[in-house]
Amino acid sequence: MHIITDQKIIKRKTRIGQVTTLAGLGVLAIGFVLSMKPENTIIAFGALIVGFICTQVAVYYGNRWGRSPREDELVVKGLKGLGKQTYLYTYTSPVPHLLVGPMGVWVLIPYFQDGVITYDEKKNRWRQKSKNWYMRFFGQAGLGRPDQDLINYRGKMTRFFKKHLPADQQPEVNVALIFTAKNVVVEAANAPTPTFALNKIKDYMRRLPKESPADPEIINAVKELLPKESV
pLDDT tens across 44-89, in order? Predict the structure, then answer.
């Protein structure tokens, strides 16, 4: 598998995580000191709010880029072993992770949340049941809205291809959700979009060329459009 990566973006986002972590801790410390004097109550309260926001931003960036293995490293690990005809574009396309090869064109959306992941068909929502409520509240951002994420990411790639490729070379843009936490349990076979734990995604991608192979001409056109090497 060929991996085309933008290292500059990774370094920049890692730096953002480091700066917001220090800023959040600093503002929280200032707010705590100010709160010791009654006349500073309003200012202290404001500082604590700002510090909390900075901390949440730091958690977001830290979980994705501030630790090793990073999000991109985990995606590579989950797909390692796919053939030489497969290309993984990391931060080098309109979406963070794009897989292109005999299996077609796939937008991969990783989530670091742990616990049990299910899909609620009535509400069209993915749900997370965390095993550790303390870590979920203080050390991990919520699952958010995967249903909106997949619409946004698919839309970005679809618009990109419509702009740069002729009508007869438009690929189908598929989306897969990947949960990368070590102990996550994914019970979402009923989801409308393929949803896997990290250790299941490679087998799924390997089966696709046998079950419904992508058009080689379209895949080659996509590869020609995208970057040829890492930066």
Answer: 778 778 877 877 777 777 767 767 788 899 999 999 989 899 999 9
Neighbours of 74 (CB within 10 A): 19
Please state the pTM of the whole predicted model: 0.81
Q: Which residues pair with 120 in a beta bridge?
A: 125
Total residue count of the chain as it appears in this document: 231
Residues 6+ apart with CB under 8 A from 58: 17, 20, 21, 23, 24, 66
Q: Cα separation of 51 and 101, whole Å?
A: 44
User: Residue ranges of the chain with pLDDT lower than 70?
Assistant: 63, 66, 131-142
Q: Could you tell me if 128 and 230 are in contact, meaning their C-beta atoms sit under 8 angstroms apart? A: no
Tell me the HSE value of 101 on the side-chain side, using a 13 A CA sphere.
Answer: 22
How many whole angstroms separate alpha carbon 181 and alpha carbon 128?
12
